[in-house]
Amino acid sequence: MSSTTFRIGSFVLDNRVFAAPMAGVTDRPFRMLCRKLGAGYAVSEMVTSRKELWGTLKTSRRADHDGEQAPIAVQIAGTDAAMMAEAARYNIERGAQIIDINMGCPAKKVCNKWAGSALMRDEPLALEIAEAVVAAAAPEGVPVTLKMRTGWSDDRRNAVVLARRFEGAGIQMLTVHGRTREQGYKGSAEYRTIAAVKATVSIPVVANGDVDSPEKARQVLAETGADAVMIGRAAQGRPWIFREVAHYLATGDLLAPPLVAEVRRLLLAHLEDHYALYGDFSGVRTARKHIGWYVRSLPGGEDFRARMNAIEDCKAQWQAVADYFGQLGEQMDRMPAIADLQPGAPDDELATDAFA
Ligand SMILES: Cc1cc2nc3c(=O)[nH]c(=O)nc-3n(C[C@H](O)[C@H](O)[C@H](O)COP(=O)(O)O)c2cc1C
Question: pTM of this prediction?
Fold first, then answer.
């Protein structure tokens, strides 16, 4: 594979900087924004393989790909091979062009109820699921990819063994988050296991975990030899990180942070898209976390967040954001550079809630 071309099946991606699936965050409006701002690829939030939930509003919103740029990648989660195969077929019928299997979620509820990284503990079942999903997707010409962690626990770091088996089962790309299931989001991601996976298989490997700047992206690519990097939490409230990383990888130069006026425009458009998907009642509530992330490192951001959280109406929320960024633009031209941001606490709470 050349350093500039990245393929999944017949899809050629624009670059090697991907947006991570994040339940409750990477809905269609946010994914489309990430793509527009430079992400070469974006995976949907996971969709359960439990059929009885497919009709729920939550799942149907997650399966909404209206206007989304190809390739449309849908992540599925479950513990039963036949159900996972059916979920793959169901999502392909609804527009999925790539199916991603979730073996990366650490949250307890997922491990008890469904699957996620719990599957890494049961290698025969993990393999059975991979084979069943590949068999279901192959007749449609849909590639199947898989996202996992480095292992179940420190002494059961089995990503390399599994990677070889998944490749044999026909999985076409592997993403590895450099933490074990036991770690949750604690500690730091390690990249040695990702490098070992990359050295073992010949399908593309994507490195994930704690990539939060252009320099870190380059370091992780160099350390792992991976074909791409995937960014999750660092894109919350900073979706332009994708173009910053892509530009740096391509040229070695750092882009200037975006103008406040541009971010005002992007965020207001993001909100409009968000309200259109969720409706007024849910829209105003689910938009709060996004707005909070955008303003967290800005002057007066915490006060604004507290005021904004009390607003119960989309129009008033939109206007408050427009006014806040309008006033901010009078104080500063550009957003703070990544290097000037305070490191935020890991969003453990939210990650756990999101899987409920
Ligand atoms: C709020 C939240 C939701 C997540 N949801 C998913 C998910 O649905 N599927 C998945 O494979 N990983 C999920 N993850 C894990 C991320 O895709 C990613 O592997 C992890 O956050 C590490 O990358 P980062 O350090 O760049 O954030 C989620 C993470 C967060 C913080």
Answer: 0.93
Give the per-residue pLDDT at 4: 61
Locate the ligand 1 atom nearest the alpha carbon of residue 212 and give its number.
26
Q: Would you kindly state where each structural domain of the chain is located, as residue ranges? A: 6-255, 260-338
| Cα–Cα distance, 48 to 106 (Å, whole number) | 15
Is domain 6-255 in CATH 3.20.20.70, yes or no?
yes
Active-site residue list: 105
Q: Does the beta carbon of 233 sit less than 6 angstroms from any atom of ligand 1?
A: yes
* Token output for 277: 């998907």
Which parts of the chain register pLDDT below 50? 1-2, 111, 114, 344-356
Neighbours of 132 (CB within 10 A): 21
Atom of ligand 1 nearest to the CA of 104: 11
Residue 93 to residues 64, 88, 97, 136, 140, Cα–Cα distance (Å): 12, 9, 9, 12, 9
- 9/207 Cα distance (integer angstroms): 19
